[in-house]
Specification:
888 residues, alpha+beta, 6-stranded antiparallel barrel
């Protein structure tokens, strides 16, 4: 057994199974496609469910892959032990109704003992206790001695996930040696110690489960195997865990260098070093596949991993953004197997760096809040109260500012403060229950099939690129619940009719482009309006229709007619999306990539990666470039090409999208070249012109432009012309050309009047200050002033408090004001009062909380919003007591 690097192991495995007639496929993206049951791809089999179920024909019935995977259920354990990680690569060879146990078992043994030359005596095999077939192949055909075989129960050696394909499995284990064992007499395969490490799992999908305990033997079973590449590397490199594998260790050493720490010198530092090493691997691959940090879904997973890594960097004493430097090493170590990492390197590092900088701002805000809470607790403790931080506050620090409980506990412990862990866990439990309910609503099994899965027909052939009307055959009809031979109108039009045709000119909703609409007309009088079209996993184009009249029968011929005007408008907007992306990259930079799009007959919406709002000049330049290309009358060429040839042309692909061997390329005269399956114009001149309607934020790191073309621009001109005339009439301007001058004059008049009104209100309020002192309370030498005004704004309120503060250094003023259904509290503290421990920021929070509000500010001046105006009097009545509690 010779030392072998991880990248070499990956290649040797894939080549071995290519020699056994398998088609090597690139890793699928981490973002699942057409599978709502998964947030992220977490196994080699996950992206191939449709092939296992027979919903789609696989490119080959023998496939081998090395799949990148993310698993995060044990994220809190990552770093604490060296056994846990969130990112891993899964080697797999798969049979879709082709070979079975008789072939896969010998191949597995051959690869391990002959190709890699792992000593047979160090390998042990487990099988399902009732799987005599597998046991006999291992022992009689392969000659594995009985003392190296173990029969285990359903919990260990039977793969099952709800209803659907399932079956027994056989696991191959590697004996790492006595030094890894527990030294118990019963130690063996299945023991909880680290001696016998599972290396390869061979799953024999030979049953169909109804989820209730009934298993039906499949006529054509499948094979699904999985072998963790990092685990195999541990065996071949003779190391104890994944953090010591060559590619991973390279990143770990870089963490040591940046942090100026030595791994295994301090257990606490080791946890942080492992967390950072693991998380930067996951996040680099996630960003490469188009995932961006956000507060929901897979974007939240990415954000959580990045922020956890950044926090552990702080714990190691790293005080600047450093994660993008580590991402560089991950890219370098992994590009041999995943060349897209190098292609996206600049973009990956920019996303990671932007999020890390954002978190540094957040963590500072969190520390400020935590320090404020500690200060309050210490003051309350002086009055005999228990020194404890509430679970709700600890959870808020975790959820909003990314403070894990252990960090909050550590900081609090330095002040002798305990944390209500039970309350924290309760709040966490509520959040998890909410998240779990969301996951359950996704159809957690993921093995769903479509209504037409039993339809006896070939997949629908799409003919709509070149043809908008065609005679076609009805191959399936449904009312939305059952497949029917015929369907008829009742007393009026019948909605919810689903029709599958052998061919169709109707484009199905896909890639951001909406579906075509139109009509189906039968020879026997049936007439249906097509409202939507969707494509099923099996390849059927399902036309959602309203049967207006007649009877539609399965097998009859109908004329399918697409709404030509609408299709033309959609095509214009889709071509505009391509021009827009290229123009954005020219103006903003190569980091711009499509993050989503929507094209219908009225507009184009284009989401793209960019980290700040576009300036008016940038928007002007982008719009100008698009229109220049329209006026140049560029030819739009569409062709199907081998993917390798398309990439040589420089065709842009969607982030994280999986493409076949042949791709459809839309080339706009060599200026813009993209992979695309949508419908387009023949020449850019057909767009007429292009106008940007808006630019906004779609999500963190994602900007959105909406625009329109052709008749959409003319409608926009008509609407804005009418708006000008309406505005001119309202301002009594005869000539719209004078409108800007009149609007400016009117705005100036409003500003002058507003200023005069504010000054009058402030003067009226100031005139009452002396009266406020007459009603003041004395609290241990501090003058406490409270009052509630209606009709003055927050600036006048602030001015009053500042005047009181400057007039009376030993004063505390807490004044509320209500204006236009908004209630505001202002608190000021004079200089002498501050010297006695009083701070406006602390006082305003305590007072506002009585009325359901919150706020903050500086020691001398603070503001808060009041939610429950009915409790303002209660809040003001409590000011004196709060001041007394906070006095030194």
């Amino acid at each position: 057994m010779q030392w072998t690097g991880l990248n070499e192991l990956r290649e040797r495995y894939l080549k071995f199974f290519e020699s056994k007639g398998h088609l090597r496929l690139d890793s699928f993206p981490l973002v699942p496609k057409d599978d709502n049951s998964l947030l992220l791809i977490n196994s080699g089999m996950a992206p191939m469910k449709k092939w296992f179920l027979g919903q789609e024909e696989p490119p080959c019935h023998r496939v081998t892959t090395c799949q990148k995977c993310i698993r995060t259920p044990d994220i809190e354990r990552v770093g604490i032990t060296a056994r846990h990680g969130t990112y891993f690569e899964m080697l797999g060879n798969f049979s879709f109704q082709d070979y079975f146990k008789e072939q896969v078992i010998p191949w597995a043994w051959e690869f391990l003992t002959e190709e890699l030359q792992i000593p047979a005596e160090r390998l042990y095999v487990s099988v399902y206790e009732q799987d005599d077939e597998a046991y006999d192949i291992w022992t009689k055909k392969m000659g594995i001695p009985a003392d190296h075989m173990v029969r285990l129960g359903k919990e260990d050696n039977f793969w099952e996930h709800g209803s659907g394909p399932c079956g027994p499995c056989s696991e191959i284990h590697f004996d790492r040696g006595e030094e890894y064992g527990c030294h118990k007499p019963t130690c063996g395969v299945g023991c909880d110690c680290d001696r016998y490490m599972e290396v390869w799992n061979l799953v024999f999908s030979q049953f169909d489960s109804d989820g209730k305990g009934t298993y039906t033997r499949l006529e054509r079973p499948n094979i699904d195997t999985g072998m963790g590449l990092e685990r195999l590397a541990c065996v071949m490199q003779g190391v104890g865990n994944l953090f010591e594998v060559d590619t991973v260790q390279s990143t770990l050493h870089l963490v040591e260098k940046i942090a100026r720490k030595t791994y295994k010198a301090n257990p606490k530092d080791d946890i942080s070093i492992r967390v950072i090493t693991d998380h930067i691997r996951s996040t680099t691959f996630m960003v490469s596949d188009g995932i961006l940090p956000s507060n929901a879904g897979r974007g939240y997973v990415l954000r959580r991993l990045l922020r956890r890594a950044a926090r552990h960097g702080r714990m190691l004493g790293i005080s600047y953004p450093f994660l993008s430097e580590l991402a560089d090493d991950v890219i370098k170590q992994s590009s041999a197997g995943y060349p897209e990492l190098a292609e996206h390197a600049d973009y990956i590092k920019k996303v990671i760096n932007t999020e890390e900088k954002s978190f540094y701002k957040t963590i500072d805000q969190g520390m400020e809040i935590l320090n404020g809470l500690i200060e309050t607790i210490n003051k309350e403790a002086a009055e005999g109260k228990e020194k404890i931080l509430s679970g709700a506050d600890a959870f808020r620090l975790n959820d909003t500012f990314g403070f894990p409980l252990d960090l909050t506990k550590e900081i609090a412990a330095e002040e002798g403060i305990a944390v209500d862990e039970e309350g924290f866990q309760e709040a966490m439990k509520k959040q998890k229950e909410t998240a779990r309910a969301d996951r359950m609503s996704r159809d957690i099994s993921g093995w769903t099939t479509d209504l037409f899965v039993d339809a006896d027909a070939e997949p629908t052939e799409f003919v709509g690129y070149d043809c908008l009307e065609k005679e076609v055959q009805v191959v399936a009809v449904s009312d939305g619940e059952n497949l029917l031979d015929a369907i008829a109108t009742d007393e009026g039009a019948k909605e919810g009719v689903l029709v599958v045709l052998n061919q169709t000119p109707f484009y199905a909703e896909s890639g951001g482009q909406v579906a075509d609409t139109g009509v189906l007309t039968g020879a026997n009088g049936a007439k249906l309006t097509v409202q939507a079209v969707k494509k099923t996993p099996k390849g059927y184009f399902v036309h959602s229709c309203v049967l207006q009249q007649g009877i539609l029968k399965k097998g009859e011929t109908v004329t399918a007619s697409v709404d030509k005007v609408r299709r033309g408008a959609i095509a214009r907007n889709h071509t505009a999306a391509h021009l827009l992306q290229k123009a954005l990259r020219d103006v903003l930079g190569s980091h711009v990539h499509q993050a989503g799009s929507y094209e219908d007959d009225e507009r184009v919406r284009f989401d793209f990666t960019h980290f700040s709002a576009m300036t008016p000049i940038e928007l002007f330049e982008v719009e100008k470039i698009v229109n220049e290309k329209i006026f140049e009358s560029l030819k739009v060429n569409v062709q199907n090409l081998p993917i390798s040839e398309a990439k040589k042309m420089g065709a842009m692909a969607l982030f994280g999208e999986k493409y076949g061997d042949v791709v459809r390329v839309v080339d706009i005269n060599g200026w813009s070249t993209e992979f695309c399956g949508g419908t387009h114009v023949k020449n850019t001149a057909q767009l007429g012109c292009f106008k940007i309607l808006s630019e906004s934020s779609a999500a963190a790191g994602i900007r959105r432009i909406e625009g329109t073309t052709g008749f959409g621009v003319l409608r926009l001109l008509d609407e804005r012309t009418q708006l000008l005339h309406d505005t001119a009439a309202a301002l009594k301007v005869a000539n719209v050309n004078d409108l800007a001058q009149r609007a400016a004059a009117t705005a100036n008049e409003v500003r002058i009047l507003s200023k005069e009104l504010a000054e009058m209100k402030a003067a009226a309020a100031a005139s009452q200050i002396d009266g406020l002192f007459e009603k003041a309370q004395e609290v241990e030498g501090i003058t406490v002033i409270t009052s509630f005004f209606k009709g003055i704004d927050s600036e006048a309120l602030r001015s009053m408090c500042q005047q009181i503060r400057d007039k009376a250094p030993n004063s505390v003023a807490a004044i509320c004001a209500q204006s236009e259904d908004k209630t505001t509290l202002a608190v000021s503290v004079g200089k002498q009062a501050q010297e006695r421990g009083l701070k406006a920021g602390v006082l305003v929070k305590a007072v506002a909380a009585i009325a359901g509000g919150n706020g903050g500010g500086k020691p001398d001046m603070a503001m808060a919003g009041i939610k429950d105006a009915s409790k303002v009097e209660d809040a003001l009545a409590g000011v004196a007591g709060i001041v007394q509690q906070n006095l030194k």
